[in-house]
Amino acid sequence: MGVQTKFENARAALRKPPAEHPCAIPPIPGGQGLWLIRQGEAAPLGFVRQRPVTGGFAFDVYAHCRDEGGRRPWLHTASSLNSAVAWTLQHDADVRALIARSTAEPDPWPPTAPPEPASGRRRRTP
Questions:
Q1: pLDDT score for 126
Q2: pLDDT > 70: percent of the chain
Q3: 55, 62, 85, 91: which one has the fewest Cβ atoms less than 10 Å from its Cβ?
Q4: CB 58 within 8 A of CB 79
Q5: Which is nearest to 43 in space by CA: 96, 93, 85, 112?
Q6: What's the CA gap between 121 and 8, in Å, rounded?
């Protein structure tokens, strides 16, 4: 009993199973924080991004397209990955209509990792 230390809070967070949903695909198997929403073989609907908030996490849903400014349109914020994906699937027709009238998503999935720095010695230039 008593006040929990930050280490006890961290241990409790690490014991939680990772968030999963059959229609949410992480870019890295078992990864957390970003998921692509895709149902079956249909074109992707959008992305879910996890962000910390006081007392837990929020899950923001973005459409799988770009607006006039080159940004992904934000659609909804939910309190869990399951709620975010469910909301997106329930609004499938509206999301697909937005995607149809917007610019296509230029980024590949899974996102490519930044290039690794060259190993070995640097060459001197005269």
A1: 47
A2: 73
A3: 55
A4: yes
A5: 96
A6: 44
- The 10 Å CB-count burial string (b at 16+, else e) for 96-118 is eebbeebeebeeeeeeeeeeeee
CA distances from 13 to 55, 57, 63, 123 (A): 11, 11, 29, 46
Residues in the chain: 126
Q: Distance between CA atoms of 65 and 48, rounded to whole angstroms?
A: 13
pLDDT at 124 over 90: no
Region 5-13: mean pLDDT is 60
5 pLDDT band, cuts 50/70/90, is low
Q: How far apart are CA 110 and CA 112, in angstroms?
A: 6
Longest CA span, the chain: 68
The better pLDDT of the pair 6, 99 is held by: 99
Eight-state DSSP code of residue 42: S
Give the tokens for residue 42.
């249909």
